[in-house]
Amino acid sequence: MVRKVAERLLSVYVGKYTQSVPSLKDKTALVTGASRGLGAAIATALAEQGARVAVNYFASEGRAEQLCWDLNSRGLTTKAFKADVRDESQIAAMVREVEKSFGHIDILVPNATGHQPFLSIEEQTWQSHLDQLEFFVKSPLLLLQSVLAGMKERCFGRVIQIGSEVVELGNPRFANYVAAKGAQLAATRSWARELAPFGITVNLVAPGWIPTDRSVGATAEEKQAYIDRVPMQHMGTPEDVGRTVAFLASAGAEFITGQKIAVNGGNTLE
């Protein structure tokens, strides 16, 4: 008798949990710069929630195809699409191909980035700032413009930018990157107010230092110095970022817009 009651309670619990898991079935997501690192984790999290995921890449075709093969072998739905997301014509062509394969795009995650050099004020040039603005302001704008008409027509859309904690921290020798990330956050807030009446939410996920391929050159001492400042006393993972993006794309976040969600163990509190 006790066993039967326990089994029944477990069944009810599992059923409620399953129902509460955000589902993105019948939604299509486009994630840029998704062949590796945070982008791959984001694409994976969205696919695991049932979305059809367009994995954008520029140079890493092999890694993008491998990611899609791995996810598709699990019964998920993904496909790789090449485009330089700083180029308007390439974006337009990619969006057409995504829509041909998966239908309209419901979820947009501008994640692609480029080289991020540390430069003193004396070393910085206007071009060094423009290089960052191309990825964090120009590219998201062009991508949003390419899918916005459909989102407005359907009165549904999720735009999730990938920012950074550096806007709050103000890292030295990094003003070119920090300024572009600050502009990205400002655009997110403006877009959120403009698009809210159309049922389109716009938010930004701001990771802390998440170990990826980009940080392979960091020393153990540098990583420990960062960890010592983090209240949770450890670094995050790409999966932490992916799960946050998947939540913001879900129905559970339909009343959240214009927000910056820090994924950094409490390293910033703004």
TrEMBL record:
SUPFAM superfamilies: NAD(P)-binding Rossmann-fold domains
One of the record's GO molecular function terms: oxidoreductase activity
Highest taxon listed in the record's lineage: Bacteria
Keywords: Oxidoreductase
One Pfam short name: adh_short_C2
Family named by the database record: Belongs to the short-chain dehydrogenases/reductases (SDR) family.
Protein name: Short-chain dehydrogenase/reductase SDR
